[in-house]
Amino acid sequence: EVQLLESGGGLVQPGGSLRLSCAASGFTFSSSAMSWVRQAPGKGLEWVSGISVGGGGTYYADSVKGRFTISRDTSKNTLYLQLNSLRAGDTALYYCAKDRDCTSASCQYFDWLGQFDNWGQGTLVTVSS
Amino acid sequence: QSALTQPASVSGSPGQSITISCTGTSTDVGSYDLVSWYQQHPGKAPKLLIFDVTKRPSAVSNRFSGSKSGSTASLTISRLQAEDEADYYCCSYAGTRAIFGGGTKVTVL
After folding, report:
1. Are strands A123-127 and A92-99 parallel, antiparallel or unpaired?
2. What is the rounded distance in angstroms from the CA atom of residue A75 to the CA atom of residue B47?
3. Which of B6, B29, B31, B34 to mutate against chain A (most A CBs within 10 Å)?
4. Average pLDDT for residues B52-59, to the nearest whole number?
5. I need a surface site. Which of A49, A89, B95, B100 has the fewest CB within 10 A?
6. CA A73 from chain center: how many Å?
7. For residue A45, what are the contacts with CB-CB under 8 A and spacing of at least 6?
8. What is the pLDDT of residues A70-118, one digit of tens each?
9. Closest CB from B89, B91, B103 relative to A114
10. How far apart are CA A44 and CA A42, in angstroms?
């Protein structure tokens, strides 16, 4: 069974930093692209950042580019998101999401698919003074 | 980076069919057959319903189906049930990013 367990959220002041972690189990972590998706209170889903299977490709929403950094440690089966220069607008529940695996010829040339077949329960980040 | 456009709400009676649209552009929905749909119940994590525009994970009911025409994707829920009342989101791959729709609240009357 795939499990994704996020941690690291909390209350931080504007301008502060946090590092979120996502411990993965139940699948071959090194063979899956991963993403972070956030949801502000009462709002919709917003894709934040993604990382390709090998980690060579990292992708960011314009709203966080230059402030957030995604990374992965395959030896620990863990995905990370470093959040710097936090703003009130970054307040949200942050989900870790596993990209679905490519199982057909139609997707073999993509290093990530932006389609999420497993999600964690989220970790809450609150940016407030 | 604008969100994909979905209707804010759709409603239907039990047993009916409803369709949720998801409109993007030629750089996202119109360019790739990598549209996915998610169901989210209150307080829960999203659940994948449809991937690759039309495909369904094995555990998802065949009452859910997807399609695409040009830059607009659609999710149809057939034989509507009370348990289908939830928020629904589309998402499109767009090369170096993924874009979600604003979400549609489905109400079962």
Report:
1. antiparallel
2. 28
3. B34
4. 96
5. A89
6. 13
7. A37, A38, A39, B38, B40, B46, B89, B91, B100, B103
8. 999 999 999 999 999 999 999 999 999 999 988 888 888 888 999 999 9
9. B91
10. 7
Query: HSE of A30 in the Cβ direction (CA atoms, 13 Å)?
Result: 4
Which residues in chain A have their CB less than 8 angstroms from residue B96's CB?
59
How many A-B residue pairs are in contact by the CB < 8 A criterion? 77
Which secondary-structure segment (H or E) carries B51?
none
Query: Residue for token digits 């209707």?
Result: B7
> Cβ separation of B48 and A63 shorter than 8 Å?
no
**How many other CB atoms are found less than 10 A from the CB of residue A36?**
27
Beta-carbon-side half-sphere exposure of residue B60 (alpha carbons within 13 Å): 20
Average pLDDT of every residue of chain A: 96
Q: B97: distance to nearest CA of chain A, Å?
A: 6
Q: State the smallest CA–CA distance between residue A76 and chain B in angstroms.
A: 24
For chain A, say whether B46 makes contact (Cβ under 8 Å): yes
* Of residues B51, B57, B97, nearest to A47 (C-beta): B97
Percentage of the residues of chain A whose pLDDT score is greater than 90: 88
The per-residue pLDDT for range B56-95, each reduced to its tens digit, is 999 999 999 999 999 999 999 999 999 999 999 999 999 9
Going by C-alpha positions, the residue among A75, A36, A33, A30 that lies closest to residue A52 is A33
Q: pLDDT confidence of A54, banded at 50, 70, 90?
A: confident
